[in-house]
Amino acid sequence: MASQIRVDVGRTHHTSCTVKGVSMPGTRCEFMANFAILDYVGLGKSVSRGFGAVVGMKR
To answer: 30 lies in which domain range?
Structure first.
């Protein structure tokens, strides 16, 4: 039987950010997953501009 992927979301902080001169809603959050995610893997849109980067927390 294969394991299920689990992601537990911790603290979240809603903020605004500017993309191409347009203010957009953004979110910073902490999460734990049951698999390894490399630092600076991008999630979502505008990853090439530095948005959506995953950075590991220091233990």
So the answer is: 7-54
